[in-house]
Amino acid sequence: MQSQNDILNPELLWIGKRCYRVNIPNENRNTEHAINYEDEEYDDEFNCEIGENDFFEIETLEGGNKFQLKMHVPQAFHSQVIGSKGATKKRLEQETSCQITVPKINSKDTTVIIKSATKKNIISAKNRIDLIMIAGRSKLQFTHFLSIPFTTKEIQENFVKFKNIILEDSEIFGIDESLFQNSQKLHLTITTLSLFDNEDRVIAAELLQDCKEFIIEPILQDGILKVKMAGLDYMNDDPSSVDVLYAKVISEQLQEISNAINDYFASRGYTQSKSDHVKMHVTLINSLFRDNDDAIMKDESHSRDKDRNNQQQHQRITFDASMILKKYKDYYFGEAIIKEINLSQRFSKSSNGYYESTGILRI
After folding, report:
1. What is the tens place of the pLDDT at every residue in 45-61?
2. K Homology domain spans which residues (predicted)?
3. Quick check: 69 pLDDT over 70?
4. Whole-angstrom Cα distance, residue 148 to residue 53?
5. Beta carbons within 8 Å of 16's beta carbon, 6+ residues apart
6. Range of the domain at 62
7. Co-location of 271 and 175 in the same domain
């Protein structure tokens, strides 16, 4: 049974750029089981309250007797909103007392229209569709990632020196140049995102800009964000059979900022947060680089399970990092002042050699 405090202070859920108050009528019900795609059964756990601070672009029709909401839904999710033989859409309409119009198959239109006699019904239907999109994003490969470039002259030069030392060391075997990251693409990944059309990308870029005022400035308090890149570590348990060797990034402030940004995007439905602690690392050597210089993205701390499954289709050949760690564990790459966070496009390359950016947050 819900306590009085739970009722008076319901959970706030951010979906897209909207904030919803979540009233859970039964303590045994939770949002993790809100949608089941296999049998298209799901519970309406979001009993929405409309407050003066809530913003919904709801139009008034027929002299105030009917309302309409037009919402952006990427084409990738249209089939999930409709369901098998229209079952999901029909259930949404029945349980929210709304009429829902989804663009026809192969249409370039991404606008789903919700109509009802009350705004509350429309918001309830919108909540459900938002949840379908949140679940859907987690099942699809990511297209973008929030990255911090580590490409200062000092770090790049020290990385090239490190690479040459490893390649020339007669005591180190099984490492060739193809395994190393491109010095122009050295970066730290905060989180990965699945963005499916231009409006998705615009919203993600706006959310990134929000982070300056709400996250970065309160933490830095008009200071500069200075970090060190020093020391080596690896992803696996066995140093003689390693997939990824990386440099550690040292900065309590950057750790706090990265955690908060990851949570911010997760709470708005654009990424699935697997951990409340972003791994502070810059990948140096990756066994998948032999085939793809973007393979690094599959080994970041918040990569998707589907991507991990896809990795199994490629035969990973691990490398022995024992001697590298023994001789160069404390290798120093340099200091850097972090000046920007990028909304980077996967599988891309800009004129400066780094990833193409859909948006940049200047710090």
Report:
1. 444 443 333 445 889 88
2. 65-134
3. yes
4. 34
5. 130, 203, 268, 269
6. 4-137
7. yes
Q: Are 355 and 297 in contact (CB under 8 A)?
A: no
Q: Which of 176, 165, 180, 179 is nearest to 328 (CA)?
A: 165
Closest CA to 152 of 187, 189, 191, 181: 187
What is residue 24's predicted lDDT score, i.e. its pLDDT? 35
Beta strands 144-149 and 11-15 are unpaired
CA angle at 146 for the pair 144 and 151, rounded to the nearest 5°: 110
Q: For the segment 120-165, what is each residue's pLDDT rounded down to a tens digit?
A: 999 999 989 988 998 888 888 889 999 999 999 999 999 999 999 9
State whether 237 and 171 are in the same domain.
Answer: yes
Strand order in the sheet with 98-101: 58-61, 66-72, 111-116, 98-101
Distances (CA, A) of 36 to 87, 131, 132, 227, 291: 13, 11, 10, 44, 36
Structure tokens at 1: 């049974």
The candidate with the shortest Cα–Cα distance to 210, out of 280, 276, 146, 144, is 146
Q: Does one domain contain both 312 and 188?
A: yes
